[in-house]
Amino acid sequence: MNVINGRVWLFRFWLGIGILLRPPACPGQQAETPEKPKSEEAAPQPPADDKRTELNLLGKTEVQAGESRRNENIVFNLIDNNALKELNSRLGTSATVTSEFLPEFRYFGTEFGNKPSAPMRLDPVQQSRDFHGGIYFTHDNSIFRARSFFQVGGVRPAHENDYGFAAGLGLWRGAHLAVTGSGQNVRGSVNGNVLVPLASERTPLTADPAAYRLIQKWLDAYPKLAPNRTDIDPRALNINSPQSIDTDASTLRLDQDLGSHDHLFLRHAFTNQKVTAFEFVAGQNPDTNTKSHGARATWNHVFDPKSFIDFTVDFNRVHSLLVPEPNSVGPQVSIGTSYQSLGPNGSIPIDRRVNRFRYATLYRRQLGNHSFSAGAEWDRDQDNGREASSDRGNYYFRSDFGRDAITNFRLGTPSRYSIGIGEGNRGFRWWEQQYFAGDVWKVRSDFTLNAGLRYQPVTGPSEVNHLTDVPFDCDCNTLAPQFGFAWQLPSAGVIRAGYGLQYGGIYPQTLQQLRWDPPEFLKVEAQAPALLNPLANTYLGPGARHTQFDVPRNLESPYTHEYSFSWDPLPGRRWDIRLSYIGSRTHKLFMIWFLNRAVPVPGIPQTTATINARRPDPRYFELRAARNASNAYFDAARVDLKAPAWHGLTLDASYWFSKAIDTGSTYSNIAAGDDARQGYSQSQNLVTQDLKGPSVFDQSHAAIVRFQYAIPSARNHLLRRAAGGWRISGVFLAKSGLPFTVISGSDAPGYGNVDGTYGDRPNLLDPKILGRTIGNPETSQSLLPRSAFSLIQPTDSRGSLGFNTFRRGGIRNMNAALARSWPLRSEASLTFRAESINFFNTPQFAEPSPDLSSPAFGKITNTLNDGRSFQLTLQVQF
After folding, report:
1. For residue 125, what pLDDT band results from cuts at 50, 70 and 90?
2. Which of 156, 318, 685, 864 is least enclosed by beta carbons within 10 angstroms?
3. Are 398 and 747 in contact (CB under 8 A)?
């Protein structure tokens, strides 16, 4: 799945805009709950696949959602589903009720607050013959920002400008044209903390002149500044680095009536984003350029007021280019967690071009008390381009050989080296398809049933140049029934319940890892290698030993049983309350199992240097096997309350108590890239038992409160002109902290089991500390003492400490906004809006260093959110 960076473009782009061409939405609307079509509608109309039409620039603003601005020091790739995972790992999820499952929607993951995917189509927009539209401009400046918690010195100059327009005009008879354009320019400095060498550690220790020069080059990649946050860590440096983001987007839409029964809707959309990333250390992050083109046409035929049919064709192209910045050192260099790694990571560079040709039809008919729907979609996907897997090489310096990671780095004695050799350019082709049918039956005035069936077989890709054979054929057993009901009880409210079997699909990136298998590509590694010639003793000819990626022919699509129950005891009353239960049981989630690990062999010392000699199958180093290996369990109880309007004040609140558990990976795991190490077991046996624990986004408690207050007009003329018409709105979000795992930090003797795979955990000596929340930098080390753990021995298969047994600090965030509109001439109006993100400047602390071998173990050195900021918006609508 290709995702243009939702956090940098879509999410932040609409930040603070509100609604351009109509008043802001009431804050009582629930941001977490997807909008559902009403089954009671007389004339069935399918819901839009995009709630934001050309002349309605409503975005989910951070003020509405309760989120604080993301700390831009937390970086993730701008492709695949990293945006979703970053939100889950930073903020957690929202327990969300879906009581009516309709077959045309795909609900996989919606219980966690994700929007269901809708049928591919274009909906009609409200048309006017007159020229109408609006313009807006939003400015965010560093002079309005507060320092983040760890920041040294004042806030560096920075600004962000968001601007755009929307316009519509009736053309010839039956035709309406709508155009939008927008831009975002971000300039300024990113502030964050990194661990850097001390002055006494800036000189290599090796006596070899060539090795000395190489290590010195790597040391010089760190900023030549002394640590300035020694209160949190002797090596902590708070630093600023420039970053720029430029985004341009446009849409062009034409609606044409072809008669009283036929309508044609055409749309073209383009987005271009360029990110010159911040670099606290040379080459830390890749520079990114993403371009997206999309063209869609929908023909709509209305048989009568109660039935219609749609036919839609769509073409979308996304080009993602991620490259190392010019000052990068070349390979990725990891020094345990003692210093900031030199990068970027091993998946860079990426030059991916994805073309998608889509065809869909949707039929809906109202017949008596029944509302029938049926449809299908066929997608032809083309994934072209070059993707890397350690092509630049990776050096790993760990605590090993009786020394710490820093000393090994300065001596030039890596624990491991890996590199990919060959060409990763491929062209994959595959089909996606789905079919659905359903009925909403109004049995009687107080009771409605709905039922449906989806079928979405998953077929495997082929490589057009015959360079990679993908053995996967088809997961064709994907029938998904769903049903629900709504029952209005006499004087007891309304009960709604629903159940749906939902399939997640198989990601192309999961299957395409086979591009890194021989004979066209060779991924090799060396344990305890020589620094300057790490592959000196490694055979690279035909039949060479290599890391193998394995995708089984019988791989299956993950699926979930999702169900919910809700009770509205006071329908139609001034007070509105809803009590809900949400649950899901998800099976066959993706994981990568790291097999062929080294085992104890009599007569061979169990050291890092002998790992490859102790692997059972001499043909391979690691055998990375994609498997349907994890299950997940989710249960939540939720209460939603909406108070009646009172003297211009509206208020609503939600609270949910939830538990999310899995056995190694979550619903968003694609078993590729960074996800491959999401479920990192300590040995290759009993993986799911070893990794069973709270999900990475598990939060026991969460609450959100939203309000809006319209300041009443005063009797005094001057006061009425000054204060009347202003609206104050805000949202407060509070959540429990997310879990994290303490790790040994090294696989070497004295730290781990020396099986060649990083991820060992220590033994627990003090059970009383289990379950603690580590959320304050001043107390983190006392709450998570090193003395509570002991490192495992080489003959131990695993440590006794569980997975995700501690929690970082929780979330407390308040966003607020002040807005007013003034009428201009005719139907034009001017709106001013001022928003504050993180109004009380409350830090959300990152987890403490979980690496037991690191000098920084137990210390909190970063935040996940920025300090308080203000942004101002002007918008004109006409």
Report:
1. confident
2. 685
3. yes
Q: What is the pLDDT of residue 77?
A: 57
Residue whose token pair is 């420039």: 242
Nearest partner of 652 among 24, 18, 27, 23, judged by Cα: 27
Question: Could you check whether the bond before residue 344 is cis, i.e. omega within 30 degrees of 0?
Answer: yes
Is 351 exposed, middle or buried (CB count within 10 Å of its CB: 0-12, 13-18, 19+)? Answer: middle
Beta strand residue intervals within 173-305, DSSP E? 175-195, 236-257, 262-276, 287-304
d(CA 96, CA 638): 8
Contact 333, 317 (CB under 8 A): no
Q: How far is CA 635 from CA 440, 566, 692, in A?
A: 27, 14, 16
Over range 329-336, report the average pLDDT: 95
Report whether 173 contacts 250 (CB < 8 A): no
Length of the chain: 878
CA pair distance 729, 643, nearest whole angstrom: 15
Per-residue pLDDT, averaged over 198-210, amounts to 97
Can you give the pLDDT at residue 70? 77
374 contacts 393 by C-beta, under 8 angstroms? no
- What's the first-to-final CA gap in the chain, in angstroms? 38
The neighbour count for residue 307, using CB atoms within 10 Å, is 17
Full DSSP string of 766-803: -GGGTT-EE--TTTHHHHS-GGGEEPPPTT-S--S--S
440: left (phi over 0), alpha (psi -120 to 50) or beta: beta
Which residues partner with 287 through β-bridges?
A: 323
Please, are residues 764 and 801 in contact by the beta-carbon 8 Å criterion? yes
Residue found by looking up tokens 């100059």 in the block: 157
Rounded to the nearest 5 degrees, what angle is found at the Cα of 528, between the Cα atoms of 526 and 530?
A: 85
Residue 166 has pLDDT above 70, yes or no: yes
Percentage of residues of the chain with pLDDT beyond 70: 90
pLDDT given at position 80: 67
* Residue carrying structure tokens 């055409």: 266
Radius of gyration of the chain (CA): 28
What 8-state DSSP symbol labels residue 737? P
For residues 30 and 391, the model is more confident at 391
Least confident of 57-61, 414-418, 497-501, 765-769: 57-61
Residues 6+ apart with CB under 8 A from 825: none
> Could you tell me which residue, 22 or 794, shows the higher pLDDT?
794
Is residue 75's pLDDT more than 80? Answer: no
CA 374 vs. chain centroid, Å, equals: 31
Prediction pTM value: 0.89
**710-745 burial: b if 16+ Cβ within 10 Å, else e:** bbeeeeeeeeeeeeebebebbbbbbbbbbbbbbbbb
The strand pairing partners of 193, in sequence order, are 238
Give the helix, strand, coil percentages of the chain, each rounded to 5. 10, 45, 45
Rounded-to-integer distance, Cα 750 and Cα 99, Å: 53
DSSP track, 32-72:
SSPP---TT-SS--PPPS-S--TT------HHHHTPPPB-T
Contact between residue 63 and residue 16 where contact means Cβ atoms under 8 Å apart: yes
Q: Say yes or no to pLDDT of 53 above 80.
A: no
pLDDT at 719: 62
3-state secondary structure 805-867: CEEECCEEEEEEEEEEEEECCCCCEEEEEEEEECCCCCCCECCCECECCCCCECCCCCECECC
Helix (H) or strand (E) holding 395: strand 394-397
Nearest-10 Cα torsion for 707, 713, 714, 720: 110
At 15, the pLDDT band (50, 70, 90 cuts) reads very low
Closest Cα to residue 110, out of 121, 122, 99, 124? 99
463 DSSP 8-state letter: E
